[in-house]
Write a structure and sequence with these properties.
- The protein has 376 residues and is of the alpha/beta class.
- It folds into two domains: 187 residues, 3-Layer(aba) Sandwich (Rossmann fold), CATH 3.40.50.2000; 168 residues, Glycogen Phosphorylase B (Rossmann fold, 3-Layer(aba) Sandwich), CATH 3.40.50.2000.
- It contains 15 helices and 13 strands.
- The longest helix has 16 residues.
- The N and C termini lie close together (10 Å).
- The chain binds ligand GMT.
Amino acid sequence: MKMKIGITCYPTVGGSGVIATELGKLLAEMGHEIHFISSSMPFRLNRVDPNIYYHAVEVNQYSVFQYPPYDLALASKMAEVANREKLDILHVHYAIPHAVCAFLAKNMIHHDIKIVTTLHGTDITVLGYDTSLTELIKFGIEQSDAVTAVSEDLVKQTYELVEPKKEIQTVYNFIDERVYHKKDRSELKKQYGIEEHEKVIIHISNFRPVKRTMDVINAFNLVKEEVPSKLLLVGDGPDSSSNCKLVKELGLDGDVLFLGKQENVEDLLSISDVKLLLSSKESFGLVLLEAMACGVPCIGTNVGGIPEVIQHGENGFLCELGDIDQIAYYTIKLLQDEKLHKEISSRAMEIVETKFHSSKIVDQYLSIYKSLLGRV
Ligand code: GMT
């Protein structure tokens, strides 16, 4: 039976925005009516679909307000859309502010509506430490009708940091398998000036300090001594300029390519041999899944939800946080041992197709919605 679902996320905030958008797109393909309610158009909402609507949250800046009232504008928009379109569900991504906005909206909605909140990490592992916000996060979680988190580790951390009296279910992240798969992009390698025999290491993030991009560069510096290679740094953020400085200091100019923000990362992954994600905090690491789907073996830190995605020695390698020698060791091993690379690559693709398959994950969300609406 067709459901009407409102989805709210930070549309441009990396992984959480991607998951919210991809979920909406897949649900729309299945015939459900999806209403995105957010401050700007989700960036991967790149096609017309009669089942998808977008409602912009306009935040007015009146001179009496010191800060623009985004949260109130959002709550008010959620209530307006839900009342008009008779939404069944508000699925919000992030406990604060979105679950709290949904609670406020629910109190202004004239029919019964259910709130589903998905926790992505930053709302818990960063904001959860801010004691001035803990009670509000807890409130947002407890007032939701169902709560999910993107890894077992995030569920555990939420109970430890926020102590909500609420069941939290793990629903893993997923990718669109139709987009993420290995393509022949050898001409791209040439266009970037990378020699055929050179290996390609890739890192993709928003370059926040938690992503430890300096570790990526320092590890590459060691790898470069053993294996002719180039490092692709994809994305932009607070650590980008210190990264440029470090690259200069290490004399790696020309070996490290700063590509900035890119769409179609599947093309860049298709020319990559190893992917590094060396974060100090990571509830899941969606970029790992994107890389693995393209057959790129990943090396990640043994942190947060990363070990739920990378099984050490099976479909990738785990290293201790900041252990540059160990990171370089596994990278060199993967780049020099063709047989090992092939095995890890095929097991990486396999786990994306099994444990994290989009149809499986979308089904999990659907059964949560249905049980809340009593349609099981
Ligand atoms: O990692 C970020 O800086 C962005 C953040 C977000 O809100 O999109 O990512 C979080 O959610 C992603 C999607 O669920 C996860 O894959 C990331 O691991 C998680 N980031 C952190 O936990 C730091």
